[in-house]
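EI: anyone free to look at a 605-residue chain?
SC: sure, send it
EI:
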Amino acid sequence: MATTFEPEKKTEDHRLTNVSSIADEKTDYESHSSDKVIEGSEGVTEHELHTLRHVPDTLPYASFLVVIVEFAERWTYYGTTNSFNNYIRAPLPPGSTTGAVPKADRASGVAGALGKGVQKSFAIRTFNTFWVYCTPFVGGILADTLWGRYNTIMIFSLVCLVGHIVLVCSSIPPALQHPDVALGLLIVAIVIMGLGAGSIKANVSPMIAEQYTGKLRKETLPSGEVIIRDPAITVQRIYMWFYAAINLGSCGAISAAFIARDHGYWQSYLVPTCIFALVPLVLLAGKGIYVKTPPRGSVLLEVFRVTKMCLVPALSINPVKTYRNMKAPTFWDPARPSSFPKGKRPATVTWDSDFVDEVYRTYKACQVFLFFPFFWLCYSQIDGNLGTMAASMRLNGTPNDLIQNLNPISIVIMIPILDHGVYPLLRRWKINFSPIKRISLGFIVAGFAMLYAAVLEHFLYLRSPCHDNQPSACVGADGKPLQADINVWVVSGPYILVGLSEIFASITSIEYAFTKAPKRMKSVVTAFSQFQNAISSAINFALTAVNVEERFTWLFGSFGIVAWVVGILFFVTYVTLNRCFLLAISLTFIPIVSTTSIRRKRSST
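SC: here you go
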């Protein structure tokens, strides 16, 4: 059924994108001397905008309620998925019926259950990631077109809870006596949980920023300094702390690692299930407080129609001509209602010109995310392969899947340092550390993490009694692990570096998705940004044949180099080319202006 869209007021929706330099590299070249009042602000002029210090606003109470929901959801997600590697890969320890390691063997023992090996573990975990990051489209579309974000989160939290219950059933001792049955139940749980978790993810991140409704305004501090309360910086802070909540919740995997090792998997999975049961209760408690965005009709269908109307006239047998047509300023004109003669507007055109502009903005926002699959390739290694590497090292009583919690812990520690120290200092020094620059740096840091892992894996091959012949499966005649004489905590480097790269790249992508997406399509754009994780998983799945321990060195090294190359290309695409273009214009017109000026002086004399 077609939906007619009314022209949308360009006030609140444009408050964040027009006021600050959230992703606008051009601000370095604009004049800051105007006394014109900024549209949508509370009396802030252009001059004040560029001369006064910018600080974040107070965060609303409702945002913290959304943070609690995300905290609980991430605790349960990582508290289960972080155990999947050992649960699927390793067999039951000798004498165990639950997957727990006997007390006498805990110094070097590794929990396990199904005994399906490294490649099957990798394939199932990769499918889980792929599925979780495909399903945000389901939640995004339902929220934007039918239920709204609040109702969508509530419904799919109940769906996710059902999946957690199935997961617990898959890990009880009677099920583990039949590994194929337990594996089947695990896959069913993954499908249900992925549908629920993905649909929640598409809506939580837009919903948390929607709770803030402040505007750009001046404020005098007790010290007498006049400052600017900047919505864009506020949103940046909201997402910094939102990501901190995600990673604080991820630390739930710490308890899961010890519970699985000491008491078995069914208890390890039961704890996150009980925690997730709190999510619907928190949502109900905040029902009357949340700022709720109502659904706005069949947006996605209209986006496809607008795209088709503009794309068909631009297509040509010559691909170069097609590209030029798509880049032309008039590309979107065929879909504008004003382009049709009076009385001849097709019945299928149920939108206005503002909606066409929103579609354009949506595509512009989504272009940035196309680089991210290569970033998530690096991130995916901390989920399992680095855990497999850790299982090959001297544990000294530390569960091998505990080390990966250094990733969220490091993020939680570094976010306050950046939010209260580094970023304000850069703003004070007038350094525009824009999202494009942050994302580019995130790729570079992720590349360093992978190269660290590659070098470490090389030394692991040298020290392991089995060398590069599956060090994690190296056991003695008694079936107990034979581990390399390398302290397991040495593997913490890649986890910490990937955490730093996430702060620069991942947090910024969430912020970018919210601030650049039109109001009617924020959930869908957020889903698209998260879909890059699914693309990364598909690429990873295609590399299953090389995801074996004897090739980890080359795998990590390749991912590191790819991250560097893509990060540099990203920076060149979105920053350097723009500045080179401006420089080229300057070099072209300055001589012309100078020559004209000289000629005028000569003619006057």
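EI: DSSP finds 23 helices and five strands in the chain.
SC: 👍
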